[in-house]
Amino acid sequence: MSTLYIHTPQIGEGLFIQHGFSTIINAAAIGKNCWINHQVTIGFTNSTDCPTIMDNVTIYAGAKVLGGIVVGDNAIVGANAVVVKDVPQDCTVVGIPARIIKKNGRPIQHFETLCD
Question: Which protein family is named in the record (predicted)?
Answer without folding.
Answer: Belongs to the transferase hexapeptide repeat family.
